[in-house]
Specification:
185 residues, Rossmann fold, 38% helix, binds NADP nicotinamide-adenine-dinucleotide phosphate
Length: 185
């Protein structure tokens, strides 16, 4: 199945880079964010999003809010496993977890928890021959206007098209891919 024929649900989509990505996704899509009535900080909304994820082919776990992105992955994984659902869960990770940054330790530690949860889910999906796949896309700077004032910005950021190309590769690969690291171009 191609990306164009698939239904894609993602967290985010209302603003920032997530809006640019949302606009580039094919037509069958749904966004989960506060603007559409879902707050990642509310556990009951995490349960709702995980339940609704059963209706898509690709679920993009995009928005990072403390440990809630990891919590959402666990909930989505549990639902898909229980229902024997087919499809792809894509987690949006970050280069941030390669570095020790005490000044933003909650941010880095919570982001790192997603890397670990992704590995656990991939291992279980392969080990138990589950009918769906789980993958982490590890990204550098996004080409969002708010990044361009940051000290490490060197003029290169991911475009939405680059993310979609990676999604396509993972979705259409004949082999399960646990993780892709993409450099901004
Ligand atoms: N920024 C970077 O350069 C960079 C680099 C590498 C990886 N990443 C990763 O890429 C992802 C996007 O990062 P970003 O910060 O740049 O986000 P963003 O693209 O600005 O998008 C933020 C989205 O999250 C939603 N959101 C924020 N708080 C929420 C909440 N409590 N509940 C539900 N939705 C919420 C916002 O919508 P509402 O306000 O309508 O809720 C918005 O749609 C993250 O996983 C991040 O770790 C970012």
């Amino acid at each position: 199945m191609s990306l164009e024929q698939s239904s894609i649900f993602m967290t985010g989509g209302s603003k920032g880079f997530s809006r640019l990505l949302w606009d580039c996704l094919p037509r069958q899509k749904k966004s989960f964010c506060r603007a559409t009535g879902y707050d990642l900080k509310r556990d009951e909304d995490i349960v709702k999003m995980a339940q609704e994820s059963l209706n898509c082919d690709i679920f993009i776990n995009y928005t990072h809010v403390d440990f809630q992105q990891t919590e959402l992955l666990y909930q989505v994984f549990a639902n898909w496993k229980q229902k024997g659902k087919k499809g792809l869960i894509v987690n949006i990770g970050s280069f941030a977890t390669y570095e020790v940054k005490p000044e933003v330790k909650l941010w880095v530690a919570s982001k790192y928890s997603l890397d670990v949860a992704n590995q656990q889910c991939c291992k279980e999906a392969i080990g138990e021959k589950l009918p769906f796949r789980v993958c982490l896309l590890k990204l550098g700077f996004l080409s969002a206007p708010e990044n361009q004032d940051k000290p490490h910005w060197d003029g290169r950021g991911h475009s939405p098209e680059q993310i979609i190309e990676a999604l396509q590769l993972v979705f259409q690969s004949s082999q399960a891919i646990d993780e892709i690291v993409i450099r901004p171009s």
